[in-house]
Amino acid sequence: MLYPLIKRIMDIICSVILLFVFWPVALIVAAAIKLETPKGPIFVELSDRVGKNGRVFRLLKFRSMIPNARYLQFHDPRYKEYLKNFKKNSYKVENDPLRTSVGRVIVKYSLDETPQFINVLKGDMSLVGPRPYYPDELAEQKKRFPNTDGSIQKALSVRPGITGQWQVSGRSDLNFDKRIELDANYAANMSLWYDLKILLKTPYVMLSGKGSGVK
């Protein structure tokens, strides 16, 4: 099949172009993050994700939360109730209290995702595909939704994407079982036309902030 080769060539060409287009915005975002929380890193500290065939890779993403937020979520007793709601709501909390002011803006408009064009160039990701999951999130959700095992395996059979069917169909408004169903459907029916339809829908979702979990 020519599709995998064409998809990879498109990933490389489009990522180079988009990195060139977005680099001024990325510089502004990086500066804003440092100005708000000078002691924290620019990128997310703990960002291992599950990629194609279960391979774990480091996802590049601008930090949108307070420093060390991932550790605090799971280990600080002050966030016990927060963690309970976090897991209950499929690893998301609307208007997350750990999110910074800059973080709320960049998450709403998906600007925190722009460094992932580098992941695409490295071959960890594709422009279009299922969203990559945290390893612990995936394990937890498997327990909560045992009927999704087949969909999970199907979704993990392809490279994860910066955008995908889930992102243009509701993002954080959807629970895990619906999200993984959409990801599995993409993996089963992926094509250049399917990719193009998702890419054409993505700018509207970014600009509208729809489903970002931030108001």
UniProtKB/TrEMBL annotation:
It comes from Candidatus Amesbacteria bacterium GW2011_GWC1_47_15. Belongs to the bacterial sugar transferase family. The keyword S-adenosyl-L-methionine does not apply. Pfam families: Bac_transf. One of its GO terms (molecular function) is undecaprenyl-phosphate galactose phosphotransferase activity. Keywords: Membrane, Transferase, Transmembrane, Transmembrane helix. PANTHER family: COLANIC BIOSYNTHESIS UDP-GLUCOSE LIPID CARRIER TRANSFERASE, SLL5057 PROTEIN. It is an enzyme of class 2 (transferase). Its EC number is 2.7.8.6. This is Undecaprenyl-phosphate galactose phosphotransferase. The chain crosses the membrane at residues 12-33. Residues 7-207 form the Bacterial sugar transferase domain. InterPro entries: Bact_transf (IPR003362).
